[in-house]
Amino acid sequence: MSQDLLPVTRIPRTGLPAHAVVVGDPARAAAVAALLDGADEVSYHREYRVFSGGWKGVPVTVASHGVGGPGAILLFQELADAGVGTILRFGTAGAMKPGIGDGDLVIAEAAVRDDGVTRQLLPPEYPAVSAPEAVLALQRAARETGAPHHRGIVWTRAAFRPGLLPLFSYAGAGLAAIEMELSALLITASLRGLVAGGVLVIDGANADELVDDEGTSVYDPHREVVAAGVERGAVVSLEALRLLAEA
């Protein structure tokens, strides 16, 4: 019955596993769910595709949130409404400093709140921080699986491509990567008492440099080195959830 489903994502109000991996692409949600035991598609409405299954004995939810913070935060809020208490974002990002290569993982310690939505929920001075236990679980999982990884602060930014307005440069601030949804998750987690964190696969350089003077993109996230990183990142995300659940 419709009253048993949440209004935006159409996920059930009850019955989802309490530990979740969230991704942007519905197809990636299906790929991560394929790693689970007994995976079942729970719902698919708009960009929100949701699966449940098991990873090494731990019940897991896998869900997609689409592109950008305003839409993604609707999934995060409704997962919390449905009783999910731990959420890890597994996504892709552009590297922001040398030494972070394509296919590497970046484990987010915190995020710059340039997401286009959370300033309407909390003042901009309020920090978007990952749960320490999520950071440590992701780091341990990356080490144990041999995945090249880094830790640092990421920039969540609503605009993927540069525009005419000048943008403040974080180049000297030591940021590790740039992406589009993580700070929305971290703020939701703070407001709702969730455990949250994120691990990102690098699929290119600083996103402000993806468009040249002629407007021709050189961005290509479909290379083999990125695909290999995505495969590693999926396992790292699920392993981190297992560690968090068992703790």
Automatic annotation (TrEMBL):
InterPro entries: Nucleoside_phosphorylase_d, Nucleoside_phosphorylase_sf. Its EC number is 2.4.2.3. Residues 19-240 form the Nucleoside phosphorylase domain. It catalyses: uridine + phosphate = alpha-D-ribose 1-phosphate + uracil. Pfam families: PNP_UDP_1 (PF01048). PANTHER family: FI09636P-RELATED, URIDINE PHOSPHORYLASE. This is Uridine phosphorylase. It comes from Streptomyces doebereineriae.
